[in-house]
Structures
1.
Amino acid sequence: MNIELRGISKRFGAVLANDAISLAVPPATIQGILGENGAGKSTLMKVFSGFIQPDSGQILFDGEPIHIASPADAIRLGIGMLHQDPLDFPPFQVIDDFLLGRPGGLIPDRKRALREFRELSARFDFSLSPEARVASLTVGERQQLEILRLLWLGAKVLILDEPTTGISQAQKEKLFAALRRLAAEGMTVFFVSHKLEDVRSLCGRAAVLRQGALVGAMEAPFDDERLVRMMFGKEVPLAEKTRPAPGKKVLTIKTGAIDSLRLRVKDVNLEVRAGETIGIAGMEGSGQDLFLRACGGLVEPAGGQFCLDEDERPMNGSTYHDYMRSGVTYLPAARLEKGLVPGLSLSEHYALAGKPRGVFIDRAEAQARSADLIASYNIKGRPDSAVESLSGGNQQRALLSLLPSASSLILVEHPTRGLDIESTIYIWGKLKERCAAGTAILFISSDLDEILQYSDKVLVFFAGKVSPLIDTESLNVQKLGELIGGIGWETLKEAARA
Amino acid sequence: MRDSKSTRLVFGAGSVVLALALTTAIIALTGNDPIAAYRNIAQGAAGSPNVAANVVVSWVPLLLVVSGVLFTFTVGLWNIGIEGQITLGAIFATWAMRLLQDSAMAPGWVIAASIAAGILGGVLWALLAGALKTFGGVNEIFGGLGLNFVATALNLWLIFGPWKRPGVASMSGTLPFAERLWMPTVSPQSRLAPVPLGLALAAIAIAFTLLKGTYFGLRLKAVGRNPTSAYRLGIPTWQHMMLSFALCGAFAGVAGAVQVTSVYHRLIPSISSGYGYTGLMVAMLVNFSPAAAAPVALFFAALNVGAIQLPIVLKLDSSLAGVIQGFLVLFVLVGNGIRTRLLARRKGAL
């Protein structure tokens, strides 16, 4: 099927999110849609999948104009959209989630659905148990479920919005294999991403959006430099790697153990020193998130010793607030759910996070301090802006600006998840400034390049097992990817013993 | 549509008109003259200095309750248990009165001690609901509802048991206190007492100041909007929830004590008179804004007092006041919901 978007425009208040975008896509194609955050990618795809109506413009299938009034309309026409956060039902069983949205029939034919679910997942080599609860799946598995469901509903066009965010390398490879296969069978796939590398390795064509307008289109093989120029209007150089001399001990863990319902992490031995950046790699759910939370008192360790500072002050049994008083701060990946308070303005956040003296709020002082921090962290917002109105990158900047000035240790979950390259570089610039001032950083990331680029040492988690600290210099993407997948651990242990 | 003061005003006015229209229709359906009914309510609430004073008497506990639930709403809790907290305030106040009424203490001090005891009772009952929530994982709505029933039962047991009137126990309550221990009123004929009115005005002023101007209020708001983030920002979360429960219980306790010391001069079975639920309605109606709470509470008190004459004059039930209040709250909430949806649609968030 030939798909054509013709002159799509959409305005939100003062922002022209889509400016007369026209794009024609031949059948059996994986079409990349590139652009930084806020470039208008999501708006375009929401128009295409019936979530919003364009102000003007048309969508044509094989030259016939079609009208998409709602997401239900879209799926009837064969357009299936996979959202960044899969729109599924966590309390449901996989098979019930799969069945949901199937039109017609008062009583669902579970037997038939089950058979077809098994056939479909075997075709793509997905290993999903139909009886499992959706809540127990990883983001990658939930994507697989959504893809199967959309195909089963008869999708002929698949739209994926930032699908590689938050999934493991292995899941990504499986996803890409499935998408290639679908394209080979004649399907059209729209792959929305700000990750050049993913687009490069998967897509046959790419269109680049910037500030709501289509600024260029290209066919594989791509010229990276040109793509970056189109995305940002300029090239963005990565910062030079610097390695500060490690200082005093900040965090010491001896034979640490953490338990959860599904996993036991044990025998963690770790020493973090001032100024160091340690990246934690591992497939999602390998125990690294539990471990990071335990380092800040947000999860109670099941055993071993967790100590802070040079004098190895034991902290087992302490709360996060105790850790905070010792200069430890935790930056969550879910910024609006676990870091910021929706409904409160930036200046109210600063008033809360600062150590206020007195009972009454000094509005003038709070206002002045907010203006300062907003300027020095380059946040696009005003002191009275509600935090939920900020973009993802600006929310992350706001979280950073809330860090107390004297931190000994910052624990970060996915520091740049969902952020564009410019914000990523900016965030890391700020974090590295802290390191230079003697703060240690411990961070989790599923982006191997991020880990290799920014950490001095790396800790790898695999199914609850923890590697010794590995010098980043001795790693590359290939080797780190293998370790995450459980390969090469024997030599690692020998190297540690030697 | 824009999110401005004028659209809010239009929606607010529309909600009030709809509520009145529906109430009018109901009165007409019962075969009565709506205009006569409204005139009767207005006369019943403002027709003479005496009834106007009664409105203020009814405003006092309502204002105290609203001041209290503003704290629990801000911190994100539904303090349905407020009725029980009023009742416990009344019970504790009566208990202090019974202990001290025969002592040599000056009447003023006895009344003061009684009100302090009322505060204690309200706080304890509120903290019980808070502890059930914090340490027992019992939703405060269920816990509060349960405690309301317990409070009512305790109240009845006291009236018909240990504190019963000499001779025969009666639904009219315990034996009235000696007249020298009644809260002083502006004049011997009036029921209007300046001290409770002062307490109520102080309560709403305290609520306004704490919630709008202090770090404490801001922290409560943060916990109410997102407890996880608030905790990560360094705010002791459950402690703030308990504190707001305690504050709310204190105000409810004063309300109960005022009913005992100033209005009924004894403990009666329905001592909370539904002020707790009405207070929750007022707080919802003003969208939890302390500034608007006082006038709206006065209006609700006027409706309640104004409707008392309805059964005698027009053979209409006095619960008509409750019908108007209920419609008002429902329509304002629905209006807010529709306005928010329209705004969201305009932003493309739907």
2.
Amino acid sequence: MSAMLVILILVLLGGPALFIIFAIGIYNALIRLRNQVENAWSQIDVQLKRRHDLIPNLVETAKGYMKHERDTFEAITNARSKAMGANTVSDASKAEGALGEALSKFMLVVENYPDLKANQNFLSLQEELTSTENKISFARQSYNDQVLFYNNKIQMFPSNIVAGMFKFVKRDFFEIEIAAEREVPKVSF
Amino acid sequence: MWELIRANKRSSIVLMVLMAVVLMLLGFVIGMAFFGAEGGFFGLIIATAIWLVLTLISFSSGDQILLAASKAKPVTHDVHPQLFNIVEEMKIAAGLPAMPKIYIINDPAPNAFATGRSPKSASVAVTAGLLGRLNRDELQGVIAHEISHIVHRDILFITLAGIMLGSIVLLSQVFLRGMFYSSMGSRRRYSSGGKGGGQAQLVMMIVAIVAAILAPIMAYLLYFALSRRREYLADAGGARLTRYPEGLASALEKIANDPSPQLASVNKVTAPMYIANPFKKKKQRKLSDLTSTHPPISERVKILRNMSQGASFKDYSDAFTNITHKKTVVPVAALTKEDIALREADVRAKKEQRTENQMRQVGDIMRRVNQFIFLTCACGLKLKIPPNFKSKKVDCPRCRKTLDLPS
């Protein structure tokens, strides 16, 4: 009789204890995944800011060679200040899209200036710009990857129980609103 | 992705245990051959001790030893901005927690490898020949392959398994050489007057010799089998990171068709680390066989070029079965359906490359790494002065003007 009692107590105590241990593990995994999502998101911002910082240098270097392209420069500078001043996420993504478009147009125009293309300073700026554009698109790609892992974890059994208890919510994928930004900008030389 | 990493970790552990069993058996048998029945455990302890010491060394500074052995030099952003940018792009794409350290090896043979303990402390090394021959997309493909090795936790496995293999080879070599020399002298030393154990000891001796010959071969085969698999997986991971399998494919093709002599500082244990087999063979093998460290490059290129649907592991796996007609190398757990579109080539990559010019630039990079001083004379000639140049002044070879060296 006493043996039965001991088993009963063990089951009553052990079941919840086991559940709590598993729940802690799952909770920590969820937190880690959510932090990775946040981190990937901030990485996009870092790269966008880098692009903003590069533009004044680029324009300054190119201006001396491209005397008759005032419109192009104006378009870039305007798009940049609009992108930097954007407050909401949808505004920012529209403005960044426009900036990307203005930059790829600029890079097409550069084709007509062989002197500029031979300038060492410009060449290194151009490599930095290409790389920054790549980094932006890879950061978006990585963000979407992380969101996928996170959403999968939230929806799958048994982690969905813990996610429901602590109100982990699904995150949205990054979708590009402007068609031109959908592709990796082609900076051509 | 996590499923793949977990599957990789599991197969690494299985291999390590198998190799550990081989090592301990070898130690046991050698011990018995030398010291009789009770010596078996003594041999086992010695074998384990050798392995433990080597593993501790490799865990604390294995990557540094490997990099030093391959004569790799650490570089900064100014030396090769493009390489740095590409590594950072792939670091972002893979979501690595830290930027890998970057090294350049001064060797004309195009090749690359990654090493380190964990994604937090990893290193990537490329040869000067690779930088000189590949365009941006191709270099990105190669770096993506290396970063995938880091993400898949192959770097630690290669180091630890390499050390285990090294211990087995070391033990059997010492034993076989010891046998060879001692057989020229007195034989009685070993059958040390036991209670009629001479006969049994002789049998043990023969068993030990056979074991010492077979054990390294067994260990090599195990190691190579897994390293070939990991190469395929890193190709798949690289294609997934860049969304552009053609970059890696054409890079591998260039590496395979390169005429320069094989990498100078490389050996059999470090060979599986590289993106392509650093040993050049006279005859290119068509099929992968048991003794090769890498799958045949032509096959890897074909698989990558067969990925027309997308860049996910599933797409790679389909292409793999299409080309090789074998069971897929990708663990089942990693085969979830992902919709990953391919991207187009960087426009510059399509234009013809001026390889000669690129090679000269790489030469300059190596000189900068080796602390050469660069001077431009008034006549436009560029002087590259080696670090051991003693004099404070130098004459320009073209216009005879005397230039001061900056100190």
